[in-house]
Amino acid sequence: MEINIMNENFIYSNYHVHSDFCDGHNSLAEMAEAALSRDVRSLGFSSHALQQFSSEWHLRPERYDEYAAAVASLKKDYSGKMDIFLGFEADYIKGYALPDISNFSKWNPDYLIGAVHFVPGEKGCFEADASVKDFPAETLKAGCKNIKEAVAAYFETEREMLSKCTFTILAHPDLIRKQNSKEQRFDENASWYKSEVKATVKAIKKAGVCVEINTGGIARGYLNQPYPSPYFLELLCRENIPVMINTDAHRTEHITFWYDSARRYALDAGYSELAFIKEGCLSFQKI
């Protein structure tokens, strides 16, 4: 018989939540109501942000004020029932976009998520979560000689972001794994790959950010484990780097997707506490 050793008074939180302001499928209000109905008591919205730029899945620059005002309105509506926070998932692209809190000061966000989705190459850039079919073509077009070089470029870009920017939460720290589950293109147990992870953990420690255990790759059918991998997460634990659970929800049904399994995932890696946001600061609670 399995013994439940998890905290019965656990406060459910989620700070990686998208809406139809970017590439989500539901409104802010719908996401908030779904969260409350699933016992979430601390919720943060994190629209994709590329500063003065945008794509089909980013918050458009002319809607930043509207987005911030809409979240502020929900904060009032849910006061006393659920804490709601304003955030952005800000992309890092060297020379163009920096997930730095100073660049978002106009909207006074409660937190900022730093993310690497685009990786520069000698002749352009490729998407870190590109499909398996497109990944080799994209990386070669960008000037990478092979998949190994592309993976190394991804982690190097992430470490560069960690060293240059000031943000609160690191998004899906090994997003490059997204397309490696169904059709393996590189060996995650290879010494070169583990060296990249170790170097990235060192950079995370130095930056002093919190890392998310992100279940979104499972929800969308790409992975059977969260970001980061068990190996990555164990290294984070050894360095006492704080982690929190986020579901990267783009739909109401994914607000708490795989959440309790993620709590056990953290326990298995050696963690006894998880981070959440309280009164503008990171707080911790027993898993």
From TrEMBL:
Is Hydrolase given among the entry's keywords?
yes
GO CC, any one term: cytoplasm
Q: List the catalysed reactions.
A: L-histidinol phosphate + H2O = L-histidinol + phosphate
Query: Which SUPFAM superfamilies did the record assign?
Result: PHP domain-like
According to its UniProt entry, the protein's GO biological process terms are: L-histidine biosynthetic process
The record's keywords, sorted A to Z, are: Amino-acid biosynthesis, Histidine biosynthesis, Hydrolase
PHP domain: residues covered:
15-215
**UniProt KW Amino-acid biosynthesis keyword:** yes
Record pathway: Amino-acid biosynthesis; L-histidine biosynthesis; L-histidine from 5-phospho-alpha-D-ribose 1-diphosphate: step 8/9
Q: Please provide, alphabetically and separated by semicolons, the GO molecular function terms listed in this UniProt record.
A: histidinol-phosphatase activity
Q: What is its EC number?
A: 3.1.3.15
The record's similarity note reads: Belongs to the PHP hydrolase family. HisK subfamily.
The name of this protein is: Histidinol-phosphatase
- Species this protein is from: Treponema rectale
